[in-house]
Amino acid sequence: MIDPFGRHISYLRVSVTDRCDFRCVYCMAEDMTFLPKAELLTLEEMDRLCSAFVQKGVRKLRLTGGEPLVRKNLMWLIQRLSRHLDSGALDELTLTTNGSQLGKYAKELAACGVKRVNVSIDTLDPDKFTAITRWGKLGPVLDGIKAANAAGIKVKINTVALKGVNDDEAFDLIDWCGREGHDLTFIEVMPMGDIGGEQRLDQYLPISLLRAKLKTRYTLEDIDYRTGGPARYARITETGQRVGFITPLTHNFCESCNRVRLTCTGMLYMCLGQDDSADLRAPLRASADDALLMDAIDEAIARKPKGHDFIIDRRHKGPAVQRHMSVTGG
Ligand code: SAM
Ligand code: SF4
């Protein structure tokens, strides 16, 4: 699949549910309304859709959400999708998770060929963790990470940089990741979905400021390492660690975008930061063969926009797109 700007689309991210067992302050409002369960694609339909994308050349699949591991019977889908790893059609099957259920599923995930997962942790302070996630507890997440490592799954930590909340922990997070052997990526908060009040502006910490802070203790060397994603990496000379930075606001990375995103109702979003989408559920359900679906995918890829334009400042306090990150998956 090649889009109008010559970008090769080889990565599909699938939000398998919009629900979650946490309510992170930057991601969701406290009183979120979720989709009625009847609206969701069945797991069989998700398998069919993902497999159509694999047939079209997708080499990497990431299941996300909401919290993917709270979707009932998700292991069935992962087991099904693992056949594409076995056949060599897929290079990687992975997840982004809040880690709360990792302890329960780590072994099964490893058995299905999952080799790496991203786990989101914004703080190592248990009280702060509960304040940020509203409903979460740090202990089970750390146990889940240990279980994943014990099962042979490598963990990358994603940390959203939050002004006045975790900027004082950047060094602790780097030290902890260094000790535990996890890669670490810092992410700028993105203006997605209404989270109530004027919180976005309060939360937004430009990564450039975080980098400046890191430089007071460490030497950061920009390196060419790429994982096919938007992160740009630096090496900390003193420790040898690699740290990633995702800067959707301060530096636009759309020129190398290789991905599209599917929601749990079968809407395909060609850009995280734009509203245009394509309904793949209708062609999926219209016939048992995939011809209509394949045409709809081609038509959608031909509409992939050049990029997004996130802004957070005093004049732009509202969301750039109405949907929350949990709809399209982070
Ligand atoms: N529940 C899983 C988790 O937390 O990892 C997967 C879904 S979550 C939406 C995926 C990632 O998006 C997490 O790393 C989360 O921190 C990040 N995220 C959520 N809302 C965001 C926002 N408004 N700006 C930047 N990152 C956000
Ligand atoms: Fe749930 Fe992940 Fe959003 Fe937090 S960031 S509320 S864990 S979906």
Descriptive keywords:
330 residues, alpha/beta, TIM Barrel, 12-stranded mixed sheet, 11 helices, 32% helix, 18% strand, binds S-adenosylmethionine, binds iron/sulfur cluster
Give the helix/strand layout.
Blueprint: E1 11-15, H1 43-55, E2 60-64, H2 74-87, E3 92-97, H3 102-111, E4 116-120, H4 126-133, H5 138-150, E5 154-161, H6 170-180, E6 183-188, H7 199-203, H8 207-215, E7 220-223, E8 232-236, E9 242-246, E10 259-262, E11 267-269, E12 277-279, H9 281-286, H10 291-301, H11 325-328
Parallel strand pairs: 1-2, 1-10, 2-3, 3-4, 4-5, 5-6, 6-9
Antiparallel strand pairs: 7-8, 8-9, 10-11, 11-12
This protein binds S-adenosylmethionine and iron/sulfur cluster.
How does this structure look, described?
- By secondary structure, the protein is an alpha/beta fold.
- It has a single domain, classed as TIM Barrel (Alpha-Beta Barrel).
- Helices cover 32% and strands 18% of the residues.
- Helix 1 packs parallel to helix 2 (74-87) and helix 3 runs parallel beside helix 5.
- The longest helix has 14 residues, at 74-87.
- It is globular.
- 43% of the residues are buried.
- The structure holds S-adenosylmethionine (SAM) and iron/sulfur cluster.
- The site of iron/sulfur cluster has 13 residues, from loops.
- Iron/sulfur cluster (SF4) is lined by residues 20, 22-24, 27-28, 65-67, 98, 120, 133, 326.
